[in-house]
Fold:
Amino acid sequence: MTPSGTTSDAGADPSARDSGAQPAWELLLPAAGAPARRRGRALQEALREAVRTGRLAAGTRLPSSRALAADLGVSRGLVTEAYEQLTAEGYLRSDRGSGTWVSGTVRTARASASPGPNAPVASPPTASGVTVDFRPGTPDLSLFPRTAWATAQRTVLAELPHHALGYPDPRGLPALRSALAALLTRRRGVVADPDRLVVCSGVAQAATLLGFVLRERGHGAVGVEDPGSPEHARLFAATGLKTVWLPLDEEGLRPAPLLAAGLRAVVVTPSHQFPSGIAWSAQRRGMLLDWARTVDGYVLEDDYDGDFRYDRAPVGALQGLDPERVVYTGSVSKSLAPGLRLGWMVLPEALVDQVVERKRTMDLGHPALDQAALAHMVRGGGYDRQLRHCQRVYRERRDALLAALEKHFPGASATGIAAGLHVIACLPARYGPAARFLAAAASAGVALRTLEEYGTARPADGAVRLVIGYAHLAPTVIEAGVRRTAEALGSR
Amino acid sequence: MTPSGTTSDAGADPSARDSGAQPAWELLLPAAGAPARRRGRALQEALREAVRTGRLAAGTRLPSSRALAADLGVSRGLVTEAYEQLTAEGYLRSDRGSGTWVSGTVRTARASASPGPNAPVASPPTASGVTVDFRPGTPDLSLFPRTAWATAQRTVLAELPHHALGYPDPRGLPALRSALAALLTRRRGVVADPDRLVVCSGVAQAATLLGFVLRERGHGAVGVEDPGSPEHARLFAATGLKTVWLPLDEEGLRPAPLLAAGLRAVVVTPSHQFPSGIAWSAQRRGMLLDWARTVDGYVLEDDYDGDFRYDRAPVGALQGLDPERVVYTGSVSKSLAPGLRLGWMVLPEALVDQVVERKRTMDLGHPALDQAALAHMVRGGGYDRQLRHCQRVYRERRDALLAALEKHFPGASATGIAAGLHVIACLPARYGPAARFLAAAASAGVALRTLEEYGTARPADGAVRLVIGYAHLAPTVIEAGVRRTAEALGSR
Structure:
């Protein structure tokens, strides 16, 4: 449809008639049919869209406001207003007396080539063909205390003063810092002064914050455990720090390579090493702190699963031994849900100001309501109840896994079983090599990771070493996964 | 209290008797009085604390387990367990046969010199002596829809699948990205593809994310408006970018200084410039985009108060004119609450991957439940209702401010009044100079900022130019603040 000859001045609009191509006025018709109070806006939106998509090309002359109004059956004022608005925004240009034109300013958006290259970090538990996923790292998300969390949110929304909804303290909500300091002192032997505790978006942000601060202080590299978490290298790389793999033995970091590496910072998991599951010996804990003092360095203690101990008293945090050399970090990712992105760091005095300033420029501080809800839950004892509940459930699952391994893989040994959400299973060479084992498991719909995937060592004893996460799986699923892997292997 | 002679082997414990100083066993007594099921743990905590505080010094020999058990009136097994645990943690060392000693590993925490140097970003509205605070930047936090937010949280907690509680998509919850894309298209004329929208912790994080990405792409500096937000310089400095002040006139950035600056990125507030309140002219919008295309550069459009328009149709976002050159950013800080730390960026295709990866290493993505709650509120229309409600309230306050200025400061003019949460008041030279004016206001308990505080220009006309934030103040408070300032000035 072109502007019809139904109005007296339509003939004054050459582009609408003479361009040959059909101008896109029909795009505007639905807008003209909008309810009266929405009509002006709808018309503007339709015009904007037509310019943007190129259906009204740059240089196209628009019909006079009177002509367009008549064609669309709307008031002339509505069209005039739309022309003025879009002229102000730069979509149209107006030469007084000679008409209104589509400006050359607009560029259309390129179509996205794909739905986006960045897949979510966590795949859903059942990826294609996988029916039992033993890969570690996820707690049982169904244990999240939804009702308690909703209640905590409702309570804090009823109680918080208005100013608590303003820009937060970049260190974290004072009430949460106090509650966490008491919790960490009590449960983990951390020396936790609320003024040195910074609330952050989980352990990943703690690593990033510390990485930036170390970089500012002249550090060029950070040591990481080998085997260890592959995530650390990527986080530190983003802050400009290299990572250096430092070999472990059954007691902790080996002293000689640490001393030879020329570093002044390391990341460790001394209470339940990830992934090997060992607890560092007291001697190695002391060695590490001696090293830190000697080189004037820092230790990042990632207490990623410090909340879950099954058979013995928890090993207290390394931080308690030297709060001026150890940065302690933990989160609710295993105890509540990773989706909350809620964690904490306890800092040496020398680092507090820089870390807080970095946190401030990164996001101005953590969201206030989640902080208040967690503070409420910690203070009221609900957080401890949640930890006890998870601990019971996870111990039962660990026991199911150990029983299934013993039954279906005679000769297998499991280590790192006293704590955490995963164990290391060592299967004698007759079950290997690892590639054959994993292929058999995959054919049974069972996903597994080997210890070798987490480090540089390639042991030559032929044993199959698996890092088995069990916390997110029901006991019957655990048993089925182990059994089906054994059956698939046996039938090869 | 020292180990008494009440047990047969207490004499085998020389340190407890011979050190001269009173060892700190009495510290352990409260632990011994704990309920039976807590007693072992309490004893360990007390011992740890004693070592840490230095009350049990390094090298101190501990009593035998039998002696201590008898003294404390607890079972010997409890003491043995405590010694073993603290030996494993490195607090104690044990020489088989010769006893247990406090290890030299432990360092005590230094006391914090002060309650922490980093004051919260936002001072409470009534700082000392200030009874009316006209400084801009804060919405009325009492307008936060607490009930609606609690309902949204409860609803999403009831509805979300478990996997939504896992590690989030670093781009943001898909449901929220879709809801925001539709909202921004409808309300702000943004070309918003959900795949190019990244949920972030407010506009501050958007600036930080973009700053890091520009740095990676070889940028060394970013242009900022003069006058403009002083916060931008600090955020970009943290990413390694310099900032260059670019002078504004009444139409927007002046072309010549922009073209001469040799930059490839600028941050602007074209819809309602902060702080001057102007809307950029269409010609300058076009000029800026031409510049960006010519230098292969980017424009960060900070739509910080795009939600609030009072007298005319909103000026559509600059981003709509060229989505491949403009990064659009906004947040709920003015519409809901800054404490939510919830905002968004809409990105050119060329920048999406780098920004998402940076967001990932910064915090692994935004907290999931707040995202789901906002998506619920946007989809259900509650967010639009909130915007309309705020708009009504803020318009009334703006009108109260304009009326008070007219009444108490005849000859004053106000600009930037069509939108936002603040206006610029220009008071003729007879009310100046600015220092005298501010002193009078302060003596009346009224806090104000001048336009000069936001930029480098120092106009010589003697006029007093004020940036007056009104959104967080009730009409009666606004009237009282203006009246009292006038009275204080008149009595000088």
User: Anything to note?
Assistant: Chain B has three domains: 14-102, 132-142+385-490, 162-383. The longest helix of chain B spans residues 382-408.
